[in-house]
Structure formats: C-alpha cells, structure tokens
Amino acid sequence: MKERIQATIWGGFAAALLGLLIVLGSRRLDHFDAALVGYTFATLFAMFGIAYRYAMWLQRPPTWRYWIRGWQLFLQPRYLGRNLVQLARRIGVMFALNAFIWRRDFLRGAAHWCLMWGCVIAAAITFPLVFGWIHFETVEGDLHSYRAFVFGFPTLAFPIHSWIAFIVFHGLVWASILVIAGVMLAMKRRMSDYGAAALQQFGEDYLPLIALFAISATGLMLTASYTWMRGYAYDFLAILHAITVILTLLWLPFGKFFHIFQRPAVRLAHARGGPGRGRASSRLPL
What we know:
The chain is mainly alpha-helical. Helix content is about 70%, strand content about 10%. It has twelve helices and three strands; from the N terminus they run H-H-H-H-H-H-E-E-E-H-H-H-H-H-H. It has a three-stranded antiparallel sheet. A hairpin with a 2-residue loop joins strand 1 and strand 2 (about 140-150). It starts with a helix and ends in a 15-residue tail after the last helix.
C-alpha cells in the first residue's frame, strides 16, 4: 500500500508538472488550440501512468539498489570522466544508432530503427504543437512567409513555398513513412521467423504495431485529403486519427510501449557501472 501511495504521488506530480509547463509554454494558453484538448488530457493521463509505473518499478528492492548503486559509481570523481564518455557512447551508438539490435539481425535492426526514429520525430513535432509550445504566424508585412514561435519567442522565418517550409510542414509525413516501413519489416519478421512466431503474443507483439500503423496511416490520409482531395472526408479522418492517437496514449503506460521508458534506464545503468553483472528486475506490478 505504501508503494502505491508513493507511486500515485509521483504520478500526480509528473502530470501536474506537465500541465504547468503547458500553461506556461503556451503563454497562459494563448497559443493553445482548444480543438486539441482531447490529445492533451490523454497525454496527461499517459504521463501519470508512466510516472506511476516507473515509481512502482524503482521501488522494487533489487531495482532500487541497482539504480542507487549505479549512480554512486557513476559520480565517483575518479571515474567520472570515463563514465561520461561511456554514457555519451551509449546514447550515441546504442540509442541513436541502435547498434546492439543491428548486431542481432539486420531485419530486426532496420525495423527497430525505423520505428524508433519515426516515433521520436513524430513526438518531437506533435507534442510541442499540441501543447502550444510551438506555433507559426505569418510575418508582418509579408503574407508569403511564416515565422516559428517557440514558447512565444520569435525564431526562424521562411517563405511558405521554400524547401524549409516543405520539410517542416511535412515532418509528420516523413515520420509516418518511417513508422509504416518499420511496422512492415517487423510484421515480415514475425510471420517469417518461425522461432519468433512461436513466442508471439497478440497484446505484446502485434497490437503495438497495429496501433502505430493506424496512427501513421490515418495521419497520411489526412494529408492526402487536404492536399489532393479538397478536404474530402477530412472531418471523419480527423476523428478517426484522434481516436487512434488517444487510445494509444491511454494504453501507453500499461502495454508493451512502457519498455520505451524502462529499457533505457536498464541499459544506461550498465554504462554507469552497476554492481556485478546483475540486472534490475523488470517485472512491473500494476
């Protein structure tokens, strides 16, 4: 009971902090789009759930001991320089390049790399836009140029028909293409690798891929609707896309996607030089 109360407090604190950042980053909601409030509440719930499960995980005695001892070793002045280099290598090689997965299998590495970077790009674009942290306005006196505002501060201005505008305004398209490619590669592996197929579970292995595909496909349909189809079925597609995104956010803390937040902590703990070769417990009580 004590662990659940502490986890609930941490979850509430994380959700409240994100809510405060949304209010401040959008200049007291001046740049917050009320039409996106559903996405915002789903994200706040996901933040609560992630922090809750993370706190429950860290409170397990083996995990907590591994976590604390890892940081103690990492911050030792004698080895701090070497540990920082090792940590940077872990982030750059293991995380950014997914080197540890490419070594296992090329198809698996390609699928994971496409999925990871597609989701990273999509999150880096979507959440700041939804929260009102980033918005675009036409440049005063020049209706053919846009200026990006970050947390209300003016930044880069660019012509509407420039290559910069094309890349920026289609960022979610590139992310969706990467995600769909990753989903197809992962599905191919799951259906052709009989050893992997024998261990597959729908909720853990297929449902996350279906959710990512649904989000990406409906997002691309929205782009196709307003770009080439004069807005045909746009309202329906917008609702369908919102449903897929919101349901995925609500499921995020409780399904396979939670390993996105748990796995780096375990791998970086190795970079900090945790005790022995033991691993933190990965069992996650609800």
